[in-house]
Write a structure and sequence with these properties.
Structural class: alpha+beta
Number of helices: 9
Number of strands: 9
Largest sheet: 5 strands, antiparallel
Radius of gyration: 27 Å
Length: about 325
């Protein structure tokens, strides 16, 4: 949603009255059934449009409403289940229409309080969902989202990312070592950005909400740091790599093949043992104090891998 559709635009928290909570407890209805009924009603209103009290017609939208929802069941002060549902959707209206629009939506819900908030930063909408669930559970003294019968999460088809598909399969061989090597290099070269992001996030969380100017200043710096990290061609972990450009992928595969990795088959044990020995030696050198490699040292180390390739062809 954030990458291709502008992100979610409205965040909703729906509650249940005592009567509805009793019906859920007795099995007369379920949270999922109430959410599904509500989303069906919102979908129709989104596509067909609606009429304001003074007669003005608000036209509908082409396509379907994109949304996702999550259920949590914290305990109330009496120790009873107090279910809530949080919803994000890509639908918003001008300020002058908001009161009537939200009233209509709350009427569709019909189960209790239905609070709507504008998402100020649609590209970071996921944090709204995570924080809301966390705050509700903390307030109830819980460390999880409570027990839920049925589905805890739901997402519309048009809000889902495309499914994965297999391009090719290959023997991993030494690929795990190569991935770890790239991750180490990313930490050495861009570790300052990652540390700065963590520091700014912590500072923002610890700054009281009434200090709006300070929060805005920290938020601006945090956004700038995030943009710098997003511009990196590779996102790395100890066990995975995500390439943001095809050029970065091709460069990595070219280096991997030069280092002895084969797209098919397994490297001979003698070569693999030598690779692991030299790989470990470099790690030990870093841990003993050589934590920062210059670009020249790095290129020299990478070039040395190509010398091992001959061992793969020896009989």
């Amino acid at each position: 949603m954030a990458k291709h559709k502008g992100g979610f635009q409205t965040f909703v928290t729906g509650t249940f009255t005592t009567d509805v909570r009793g019906r859920i407890a007795n099995g007369e209805t379920t949270i999922q059934r109430e959410v599904s009924r509500t989303m069906d009603g919102l979908q129709k209103m989104y596509q067909r449009g609606w009429t304001r009290e003074q007669g003005e017609r608000v036209e509908g939208h082409e396509g379907s409403l994109a949304y996702c929802w999550v259920v949590e069941v914290p305990k109330n002060e009496q120790g009873e289940d107090n279910p809530h549902v949080h919803i994000m959707m890509n639908w918003k209206v001008p300020y002058e229409q908001f009161e009537e629009w939200s009233g209509r939506i709350e009427g569709i819900w019909g189960n209790g309080y239905f609070h709507l908030d504008k998402i100020k930063d649609p590209l970071c909408a996921g944090s709204y969902m995570a924080k809301a669930a966390g705050y509700m559970c903390k307030a109830a003294g819980q460390d999880d989202q409570g027990r839920v019968k049925g589905n805890r999460y739901g997402i519309s088809k048009n809000a889902r990312a495309p499914g994965w598909y297999t391009v090719t399969e290959a023997e991993l061989g030494i690929m795990g070592q190569l991935i770890a090597e790239v991750h180490q290099r990313m930490l050495e070269k861009h570790g300052r950005l990652f540390r700065e992001r963590l520091s700014l996030k912590t500072a923002l969380e610890r700054t009281p909400k009434d200090r709006s100017e300070t929060r805005a200043r920290i938020g601006k710096k945090l956004e700038h740091t995030r943009q710098q990290i997003a511009s990196l061609p590779i996102h790395s972990g100890k066990y995975h790599l995500i390439f943001r450009t095809s050029d970065a992928l091709h460069r990595f595969l070219g280096w991997a093949v030069g280092a002895g990795w084969k797209a098919a088959g397994r490297p001979i044990s003698r070569y693999f043992a030598e690779f692991r020995r030299r790989f470990k030696a470099r790690r030990v050198a870093r841990e003993l104090g050589r934590l920062s490699w210059s670009d020249t040292e790095w290129r020299s180390a990478l070039d040395s891998y190509s010398q091992y390739e001959q061992m793969c062809t020896e009989k």
